[in-house]
Amino acid sequence: MKKLLLIRSGSRGNEVLQWQLFLAGLQLYKGKLDGSFGQVTYESTRAFQQLQHLTADGVVGLKTYGAALLLGFDGVQDDRKTTVGTNWPPKPINLKALANEAQRQAKFGKIEYTKVSPAGDAVKITNAWERNNMELLVIPQLKPFNHTGKVYFHKKAAPQLIRLFEAWEKAGLLHCIKTFDGAFDPRCIRGRNELSCHAFGIAFDLNANWNGLNRVPALIGQEGSVRELVPIANEHGFFWGGHFANRLDGMHFEVAELK
Q: What torsion, rounded to 10 degrees, do the Cα atoms 54, 60, 61, 67 define?
């Protein structure tokens, strides 16, 4: 087991990034997830210490680590196999999310669109892409969540979506699903001028209330955790948003590879 590293103002690296992600999951950190311990990280650390009735010195020492570990922070790196902590499941080695809109267009067709409003993320598809590429599926395992089990998804990825939910059911993991929070949604990525995977009909969201954007996704054993679903999703070509490098999105699953 590696020793804990003291992190404080001026520290940089993955340890700082993990600390920022932890604070963001507690809604205490609103800054950039950049692995740099600056003023915002300092103030957020002090806020955490105050809530835990610790000396609010802005330094992540042993007592601060200890309080954080009790709340699920995976600050100790342990090379034993475990399903506890923020680093499980491990990020897949041979599966990568499609990096940009150009890659998504290459696999799933070119969408022409206009913005619904200059300030919003919603778009209106203006060519025949939706008619030519989308399909209405029935996923029986989703009937408890939307009554019909119907999901609008890209034709190319529809078979593997059906197989994924069948595999989750076979593995006895459907209890992990608390809410189904949508799939096809013509819009850009939040805050970016780039089409989301939802616009291509190749993504869906689960358990949004427990796995919000830029928050540490719920841990194994906590309500709303989707972590147990991830390894099987990876096997079926779906990448988990909890493995995004700088923009955690633990509710999100998207097609990375057609199978």
A: 50
Token pair listed for 160: 């593997």
The per-residue b/e assignment along 175-194, b for 16 or more CB within 10 angstroms, e otherwise, is ebbbebebbbbbbbbeeeee
C-alpha distances out from residue 147 to 117, 140, 141, 194, Å? 32, 9, 10, 32
Question: CB-based contacts of 70: which residues, under 8 Å, 6+ apart?
Answer: none
The CATH number assigned to the domain with range 101-255 reads 3.30.1380
Residues 60-74: tens digit of each pLDDT: 988 898 888 878 776
Task: Give the model's pLDDT for residue 1.
Answer: 39
| CATH T-level topology, domain 14-70 | Muramoyl-pentapeptide Carboxypeptidase; domain 1 (1.10.101)
Global confidence as pTM? 0.72
pLDDT < 50 positions in the chain: 1-3, 77-82
**Alpha-carbon gap, residue 157 to 141, rounded angstroms:** 17
Exposure of 31 by Cβ count < 10 A (0-12 exposed, 13-18 middle, 19+ buried)?
A: middle
Nearest to 120 by CA among 187, 218, 197: 187
Helices assigned H by DSSP within the chain: 14-25, 39-51, 62-70, 101-108, 129-133, 143-146, 158-170, 230-235
Output the pLDDT for position 5.
63
Going from N- to C-terminal start, the domains of the chain cover 14-70, 101-255
Note the Cα 121 to chain centre separation in Å: 19
CB count in 10 Å sphere of residue 259: 13
Q: 198 in helix, strand or coil?
A: helix
Residue 152: what are its φ and ψ, rounded to 5°? -90, 120
